[in-house]
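Let us begin with a simple case.
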Amino acid sequence: MSLQRQVNIKGKSWVSRCGHVAKRKLWMVLGVVVGASLWCVSPNPGKPGQSAGSQPPSTSGSPLVLTETSGEAATYTVSARTHQVVRETGETSNSRHPNIILILADDLGYGELGCYGQQKIKTPNLDRMAAEGIRFTQFYAGAPVCAPSRCVLMTGKHLGHAAIRDNSEVQPEGQWPLPAEEITIAEILKGCGYATAAIGKWGLGPPGSTGDPNAQGFDLFFGYNCQRHAHNHYPSWLYRNREKVALRNPEFSAHQRFPEGADPNDPRAYAQYIGEDYAPDRMLAEAIAFIRENRDRPFFLYYATTVPHLALQVPQDSLQEYLGQFPETPYLGDRGYLPCFAPRATYAAMVSRLDRDVGRILEEIKQLGLDSQTLVIFTSDNGPTHGRGGGPENGVGGSDSVFFQSAGPLNGLKGSVFEGGIRVPMIARWPAKIPAGTVSDHVAVFYDFLPTFAEIVSAEVPAEIDGISFLPTLLGQPERQKAHDFLVWEFYGYGGQQAVRFGPWKAIRQDCYKSPDGPLMLFNLENDLGETRDVSSEYPELVQIAELILKTEHRNSPFWDFATKRRGPPKTLDTQVGP
C-alpha cells in the first residue's frame, strides 16, 4: 500500500505519493506543514481505473515519477520507482535506417528565428524548415552554458546525474573530459552501422583524453576541440581528428581592446580582427563532404556550429545585408572578445549566415536524393548572450540581446536557469514522416535526444538515462507519446543554480554555493511565462514537491558540490587516457 497526500489547489488535485518506506517520514512532515491536507491510503499506485500491474513502464532514469491523469481535476503523483528500459519498435524505413543530422547552434536565443517571432534578423531557411516539419515551443537545453549542455545531449542524463555540470577548462587546451564509461549517441548509432561525424565545437575533452570525440563514437571530428579556441571565428588552425589543419589566418587573440590612437569610426581599423578562412565556412564544407561520402549508408552528422557565439565576426558578403539597418555604436572590446565596427549588423549577419548554412545542408540532401531518408533537427545549446556591467543591454563582447529581443518573451539569458537561459528553438524536418506545419507544445529536453535516436534504430538505451523518446511526437502520434514527470537542472556555474519543472510549475533556487538550502522561487508558466511573479508563499505544498525532486534527483559528483564548495575538477589532466 502507498501513502498518499492529496491537496486540492484551485481546481486541481495534487497528489504526493512515495512507495519507499524511507520517504514516508518526509511526507508525514509535509502533512504537518499543511494542516488542511487530506491523508489517505491507496491500494493502487496506478492511474485511476488502472491496476498497479497494468501501469506502463517508465523510460526515465529517475527514482521518482510525477504523473498527471486526465479528468475534471488534473492529478499529479510523486512516487518512487526503479528504472525500466523500454524498447519500442520505431521502424521508419524498409531499406535502411534513416540518416540523422543534428544541427546545434551556439548561444542562439529562443526568439532569434523568424518562426519564433524575430522581427529584425532574416532566417528564411529555418522558417521554411519549420513550415515543412515540426516546431517545438517547450524545448529545453541541458544546461544554460556550453559544455554541460552538450554532455547532457550526448549522454541522455540530466544535470543532477551528468558527468559534467559546468564549463571546466583544462590546460593546455580543452575542457574536462567525458569519462570512458559514458555511452553517447554516437556510440549507439555507430553500433547500428552508422558513419558518425562531429563537426564544429566539441568541448567535452581534449585530444587523447577519454572525452576525445574519436573515443566517444565519432569516426570523424573536424573543428574546435576547445571552447576557448572557438572564441575566434578566424583561427589559424582547426582539428581534423587529432591533427591540426592550418588555415589562412594570422594568429591573434580573441580577446583584445581597440588600440589607442586608432579611429573607431574607420571600418578599416577593424581589419586586423579577420582573416581569409572563416571557420564556420570550412566546417560547413567538411559537413557537406561527409554527407556526400556517406550517401550510400546511414550516417549521423552532429553539426555543432560556433555561430552566433562571440566574437562578433562575419565575412563581408553577409555583413553587407545589414550595414546601415540599425543604430550602431562601435564596440571597442571593453566587455571582452574583439572590437567590432557594427556590432548589431554583425550579429544579425552571423545568424543569417547560419540560416544560409542550414539551407545549404538541406539542399545538399535533396540533391543527393536523401530527403525522405534524412531526419534533420535544429536547436541551440543554451539561451542568448548575457550582459556584464550596466545590465543586459551592455552585453558581453558587444552583443545586444535586448535590442534583438533574443529571448523572446522569456526572462533570463545565457547562464541562467530562468526560461530565457534554457528554453531554446527546436525544429525537425523529415519529409513523409513528420507532418508539415506541426507546432508542438510537448515538453522535451536535450536528454531526450539519445532515447529518441535509439528508438528510431530500435537500439537498447543505457539503463541510467533520464530521457524519454519524443519520436511519437515527431511522427504525429501524440497518443503514443510519454510525458516527463519533471525536468531537472543542477547547474554549478554563475553562483550555483537549481531548477525543476513539473507540469506548469517551475521552481528555481539561485546562489546555491552561498545558500545550498536557500528558498525556492515558484512560478506558474501557464500564466506567467516571463517568470515575474514568485508564488512560492501561496503554494508551499508545491515547493515541498520541488524540494523532494531536487534532493532525490541529485547524484554525488567528485567535482561539484554546493555544500562543500566543490566548484569543478582539476585544471590539468594527469594522463592521456584515450585510445
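The second case is a distinct protein. As before, the sequence precedes its C-alpha cells.
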Amino acid sequence: MNTLVRALRTSGLPSLLAALLLLVFVTGAVAQIDRGQRFSGKGECQRCHEDMPQFEMRHKHDPFSEEDCKACHKPHGMVGVLRLKESGSALCLTCHEAVKLGLQANHVHAPAAQGKCLDCHDPHATGEKMLLRSEGAQLCWTCHDADGFQRKHLHEPLEKGCFSCHVVHGGDFEGLLVSPQAELCANCHKTDSRNFKRAHFDYPLENKNCAECHTPHSSNDKNLMALSMHDPAQEGDCEACHNGPEDEFPFALSGEANALCLDCHDREELAPEGSHDPVAEGACLDCHSPHGSDFANLMNRLPSRICLDCHGDIVDELNLVSRHEPANHDCTLCHTAHGLSESALIIGDRRELCLGCHEDQVAEQSMNLVHSPFEDGDCLDCHRPHGSSFENLVGEHRFDLCASCHDEAEDWLRDGSAHTPIKSGDCNGCHSPHASNIQGLLKAEQNTLCLDCHVEQLEGPDSHVHSPFEERECTSCHLPHSSKEKGLLTEAMPGLCESCHDPLGPGAHAPAAQGDCMACHLPHHGKLAGLLPDRPDRLCFICHADIKENMAKSIAHDPAAEGECLLCHQPHESEHPTLLTESMPAVCLDCHDGDDRDFKSLHLNLAGEKLDCRKCHDAHASPRPKLVHELAHDPFSEGDCVACHPEADREGGAR
C-alpha cells in the first residue's frame, strides 16, 4: 500500500495508472484469499451444500457426520464434480480394513471384488444401517432376480433377511455362506431326527449337499423342492440309481453313471447318430443334475453357461458390440442339446426360428418388394447368430456386406462425389434391409426420404423456389449414390441446367461459360427473383471488385451507383461485347437524348447515334466530370478537339 501512496503523490498519468492497477491487484488478491478460506477447516462445505438431503438422514458416514469432507474429497474440482482423493474402493480402504471386510477371502461378493462399494452403500448418509442404499432384500434384488425369492413357499431364514445365511463382502465358503452348507442347514434341521430320516427315505444325509434337491430361497413346493426334479428323486425311488439306505455304501451308484440314464431314457430317441458330442458320448452329467435343479430340464447351471464352458469361441462373440439376446441368456431358445451336429443343433427350420421372435419381419414378407436374401430365407447370409462387431448382428461393415452382392457399390466410392450414407456405410439410412412397398427398397418415397436428412432445405419460407425442388423431384438433378460431379449432380453444369433452360451461345457470361451456374444462382430456393443469393449489384461485385473500388473513390454512373447492373448488361449471354443489352451507342441512348442540342454541342455537333460513348467515357465511374476517362489524350483533356478533328470547327462543334 505504501507503493500506492507514493504513486498517487507522483504527478503524471503513467504513475496514476500504475497505482490503479496495483489497487486492483491487491484487492483481488485479498478476495482470493477470502474465497480460499472456505476450505481451510471443517464445516465450511455445508455453507454451499446445505441442500443435501443426507444431512437429515439417520445413519451418517463418520466423516460426513463430523463434517470432515476433506477426508474423502479434494477441495478443488470442476463445478458439480468435487474430486475424490482416491478412486473406487481404494478410497474406502484407507479407513476400512480389507481383511476385516472379507475382501481377501476365498469367495468375494462381485461388487466388492470389482471395487464398486457405492453400488450398495451411500458415501454420505441413508435411512438404512451400514449406509445401505435401500432395505436389505430390495438392495440384493437390484442384481439378483427377485422371482427366485418370491415364490409361494419361502425358506424361513429368508424372512429374517439375506444375512441370516450369507456374509456381505467375502467369506471362505461357496455362495458367501456364513458356514459350510451342510453345517449351516443342520443349525435348523436336525438330521438325526426320525422325521428327517423318514422324509429322506432313511438315507444318511449328514454332510450332504441339500441344494441338490432343495432350493434355498423359495419354491412352489411346500418342501422347497427344486423347480425341476428328476422323477426318481421326486418320487423317493432313490434305489433306481443308488444302493439302498442300509448298504455299506448307500450313495454309491448301482451302475456306471451315464449308463444308468439309458435304463430309462431311450438312446435312439435322445442320441441318434450324429448327435451333439456330449450326448453321443453319453456325458449326461456334464449338463444335467441327477437330482434337482432350479433350471429347466435338470440343467446343472444356467444353460448358456453350460454351453459356453465348451464353446469358448462363442464367449468371444458375446463380448462384441452387438449381441443376440438368446445367445446371451438361453441357448436352448434356438438350439436343442440333443440335436444333430450337422444342423448346428438348430430347432426346426432356421427361417421360421428367426421369425418366431422377429415379428416385424413376418409382416415384411407380404410387402411388394422383398430383398432376395430375406426372401430366400437364409438370415445368416447377412447376420451372425451370436455376436458381431457391427450393429444388428450384421456379419461385416454394412457397406462391405451390401457390396458383396451389389458390385457397383465399389465404383460409387471411386467416384468424385459419394453420398454421405455411402461413405459411412449406412445403406440402411435410405433402404430397408428386408422389404419395402417402394421401389429400390426405400424406407420412404424418394424425395421425402431426401428431406429427412436435408432438413435445412425446408427452412424458409422463401418466395422463389426452383421448380424441380418445389415438385420434390430431387433426382432430376441429383444421383442417389455417387457422381463424378460435386453435389451428386447427374451431369456437369451447364449441361445439367441446359437440360431445362435454353443453352447459352458463344457470348456467355464467364461463370456460365465455365459451367458455374451456382456462382450466381441458388439451386433450390431463395428470397430473390432468379434464385439469386444476393442483390444483383452485390453479387456482381464479388467478381467485379475493381469496379466497386473505383466507384467508391469516383463519380459513379447513376445505374451503377443504384445497383442497376442489369439495366445495361445481360446476366447470361449477349451478342454484344461486355454482355450489353444492346449495341453501342443504343444502350446509352436509352437514357441519354443523342439528338438534343446541348448533347450535340458537347460532341462535335454529332448526333449520339454516330458516336461510341466508350471512347471518351467510363461506363461505371470516373473522378472527372461527365465520367470522362481519367487518363486522356492532352488535346482531349484541354477540349482542343480541332487539333485532331479539324472538321469539328467547320461543322460548328464546340471546342
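The first helix runs from residue 2 to 9. Residues 463-533 form one domain.
Keep these points in mind for the review questions at the end of the chapter.
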